[in-house]
Amino acid sequence: MSFSFFKPSRPKTPQEVVKAIRDSLMALDTKTVVEVKALEKALEEVEKNFSSLRGMLSGDGEAEPNADQAVQLALEFCKEDVISFVIHKLHILGWEARKDLLHCWSILLKQKVGETYCCVQYFEDHFELLDSLVVCYDNKEIALHCGSMLRECIKFPSLAKYILESACFELFFKFVELPNFDVASDAFSTFKDLLTKHDSVVSEFLTAHYTEFFDVYERLLTSSNYVTRRQSLKLLSDFLLEPPNSHIMKKFILEVRYMKVIMTLLKDSSKNIQISAFHIFKIFVANPNKPQEVKIILARNHEKLLELLHNLSPGKGSEDDQFEEEKELIIEEIQKMSRLKNLEL
After folding, report:
1. pLDDT above 60 (res 325)
2. Cβ–Cβ < 8 Å for 17, 52
3. Which of 18, 37, 64, 133 is deepest in the core (most CB within 10 A)?
């Protein structure tokens, strides 16, 4: 016969879990942070609470997650401003707490009441929190965590639209060239998502900010950093060739300034960059409505261009035949330009 002197503890409600998280985050005040023992204790409490949150959202190995509880957790996160606390205290949190937070972040963002994503609505009411996440790339200790959180936010069109149109968007042109390779790569992943995830949002943005955007983007294409040149050139193809951006592409290929940049990249020491540059250069050349200035540049430089193109090969692969066909068409068009008599050379 056995006796139990301890009743099993009652599972916490979503309200209790969120309140515990909020209280433990608030305990990370200035006084606590400067007192080592007090800080250690406070961080342990935060870690314990985020572990509880993860268990409630993902299951604890014994019980499956409860969908209604997940929604209630998201609602409480918004009601108690825990999203704001999390972002502003992220730099203080320990590794385990950050790991659990990242695991929970995407789950919370996906919670809906009716047709409304609760946490997305919270961000729409507090857009400045997205700015706070972006500037975290300046802090290498939390840059990768913030990058992951940002990319989850960017999956929602309204949040991506805000970042594209905010002053902080221009910071990405700095972040993608930071000396820390991991941080710069992560920033580029976020930058890429902003320009490729939502076609209509991106098209609207590029239409409204064409000149300012490409003025700054040119710096990436002409960067002294090989990785930056290669990634930005590939990304340029990705978003320029999307059907909703066809009007942007048509405008871009009328500009001699950008054709000269691409022609320079055709001479890059990297074959990968040369090949990527070719796929944009061919659009300038194949354009049936080439401006006179573009024709003149092609005619003036036809010998060097033809030499470059004859020596350009993608290497072995299934796309060889198509590449060679496209290259021959471009060579023919450049030769045609060189024979025109009415160009003012």
Report:
1. yes
2. yes
3. 18
**Strand, coil or helix: 47:** helix
CA distance 176 to 182: 10
Q: Which residues pair with 117 in a beta bridge?
A: 112
- φ/ψ region of 61 (left if φ > 0, alpha if ψ in -120 to 50, else beta) reads left
| One-letter amino acid for residue 64 of the chain | E
Length of the chain, please?
A: 345
The Cα–Cα gap between 55 and 14 comes to 11
Contact 269, 226 (CB under 8 A): no
Question: Could you tell me how far CA 318 lies from the centroid of its own chain?
Answer: 30
The Cα–Cα gap between 27 and 107 comes to 25
Identify each DSSP E strand in the chain by its residue range.
112-113, 116-117
Establish how many alpha carbons lie within 13 A of residue 181's alpha carbon, considering only the half-sphere containing its beta carbon: 3
- Summarize pLDDT for 139-158 with one digit per residue, the tens: 999 999 999 999 999 999 99
Q: Is 309 helix (H, G, I), strand (E, B) or coil?
A: helix
| Phi, psi for residue 234 in degrees, rounded to 5 | -65, -45
Domains and CATH numbers, the chain: 10-113 (no CATH), 198-344 (1.25.10.10)
pTM of the model: 0.91
Q: Please report, as a single letter, which amino acid is at residue 149.
A: M
Q: Phi and psi of 169, rounded to 5°? A: -60, -35
Helices (H), 59-117: 67-79, 82-89, 95-109
- Report pLDDT digits (tens) over 50-109: 999 999 998 766 667 789 999 999 999 999 999 999 999 999 999 999 999 999 999 999
Residue 229 phi/psi, 5° resolution? -60, -45
